[in-house]
Specification:
This protein is an alpha/beta fold. It is built from eleven helices and 18 strands. It is 33% helix and 27% strand. Helix 2 (46-57) packs antiparallel against helix 3 (63-87), helix 6 (197-205) packs antiparallel against helix 7 and helix 10 (355-365) packs across helix 11 (389-399). Bound molecules: adenosine-5'-diphosphate, aspartic acid and magnesium ion.
Length: 403
């Protein structure tokens, strides 16, 4: 009998009515004879509200205790859904992370699932039961509760599909698939029927929160096909799988954006070997990720300007570390928080010259100033002023014929 993972996100279980609707979807799949492992997120808004409660105690709330707190969101949703299935006359049962157990490695708030014990769940599935498991949570080697990062139920679903060797992993969400851009912000965005792991990984890493990046990474590593679809409509959805099977007729597949960025500029930095390393080393020690870097050409061969971007939430920490850094000298430090990163992504770029030029020309036509640039084989990202975000996305949509 075919085994399936069905994952339902926060909005899909966001109210009692919706939980009942999800129970109907599961009941129909069960009637078709599938063995079902269900993975759930917390009801929408719950994780955010738990985070705000912790912040009222302290902005630096203890990481271990935060994971204990956040994992309660998924405990609520799995029990409500399993109860809804039981009251429909089905055999269903929920388990928490430590009861299975779901083992993770890595730090609190950003753990990765490494293994889980399959025996009791397989036994339950064999007896005709529907297993309801919590997304987002696990336990560490020493028994502490962990979580797998925001949106981490996607990672749980993919890890479970891998460990149980299920035939499919279906991600049910509040939109009917992956779009060329966020359909809730860009009305002209178009649904994509098929997308490669590589493109999806770029899109989600660059801001499309519809799939968590580490979930896509695991799916890509183990070649687990994903099917993203809506809880609320019967449309076909989007299939995410390996590149060989896809016919690329478009150079650009999607446009992602993130308002999570900040730009820092250091003027009058010594233009000599090792200076960039001296600037970035204390930042990397504090796990601050540097995204884009631009170094201006030095006019006098002695001094230069260095611009780079970090996550907006890391801005204060970064500027404090730079000011405290005795190894470096500069004449001025400035920063800009009101920036966003716009990225065009497409596997077809590899074989098509001139995409960068087309992107820059399109933004210039809209009088949008580019503050920083970075490229890879299948993506081009630019930093622009935050106020220009929507204008830029719309223009790039029409430039690359996505609408
Ligand atoms: P879930 O709670 O089901 O995990 P999320 O809120 O994490 O759902 O992700 C779904 C949301 O992702 C959509 O409501 C949409 O606003 C957003 N999104 C951003 N970029 C895209 C995109 N390219 N395609 C589809 N949805 C996107
Ligand atoms: N509840 C968690 C979050 O809101 C995990 C998830 O929804 O995937 O981030
Ligand atoms: Mg999500």
């Amino acid at each position: 009998m075919t085994k399936k993972v069905l994952k339902f996100g926060g909005t899909s279980v966001g109210s009692i009515e919706r939980i009942k609707l999800v129970a109907d979807i599961i009941s129909n799949e069960h009637k078709k004879g599938y063995k079902l492992i269900i993975v759930l997120s917390a009801m929408s808004g719950i994780t955010n509200s738990l985070i705000s409660k912790s912040k009222k105690i302290s902005e630096n709330f203890d990481a271990r205790e935060l994971d204990v707190l956040l994992s309660t969101g998924e405990q609520e949703s799995i029990s409500l859904l399993a109860g809804a299935l039981v009251s429909k006359g089905l055999k269903a049962k929920s388990w928490l992370n430590w009861q299975i157990p779901i083992l993770t490695s890595g730090e609190h708030g950003n753990a990765r699932i490494i293994n889980l014990s399959k025996e009791k769940i397989n036994k339950f599935l064999d007896s005709g039961g529907i297993a309801v498991l919590p997304g987002f949570q696990g336990i560490s080697e020493n028994g502490d509760i962990t979580t797998t990062g925001r949106g981490g139920s996607d990672a749980t679903a993919v890890a479970i599909a891998k460990l149980f060797e299920t035939d499919t992993c279906e991600i049910f969400t509040d939109v009917d698939g992956i779009y060329s851009s966020d359909p809730n912000k860009i009305p002209v965005a178009k649904k994509i029927d098929k997308i490669s792991y590589e493109e999806m990984l770029e899109l989600s890493s660059l801001g499309a929160k519809v799939m968590q990046p580490s979930a896509v990474q695991t799916a890509m590593m183990y070649q687990i096909p994903l099917h993203v679809k809506s809880t609320f409509t019967n449309r076909e959805g989007t299939k995410i799988f390996s590149e060989e099977s896809i016919n690329y007729d478009k150079v650009v597949t999607g446009v992602a954006y993130s308002k999570d960025e900040a730009k820092i500029t250091l003027q009058g930095v010594d233009d000599k070997p090792g200076v960039a390393a001296d600037i970035f080393s204390p930042l990397s020690e504090k796990q601050i990720n540097i995204d884009m870097v631009i170094q201006n050409i030095s006019l006098d061969g002695k001094k230069t300007d260095l611009t780079f971007t970090v996550k907006r939430s890391d801005l204060r920490k970064s500027t404090d570390l730079i000011k405290k850094n005795k190894k470096i000298k500069f004449s001025n430090l400035s920063f800009n928080e009101k920036v966003s990163k716009i990225s065009v992504v497409g596997a077809g770029m590899v074989a098509t010259p001139g995409v960068t030029y087309k992107m820059f020309k399109a933004l210039a036509e809209e009088k949008i100033n580019i503050l920083a640039i970075s490229t890879s084989e299948i993506k081009i990202s630019v930093i622009i002023n935050e106020d220009d975000t929507l204008k830029a996305i719309k223009k790039l949509h029409s430039e690359f014929k996505l609408d």
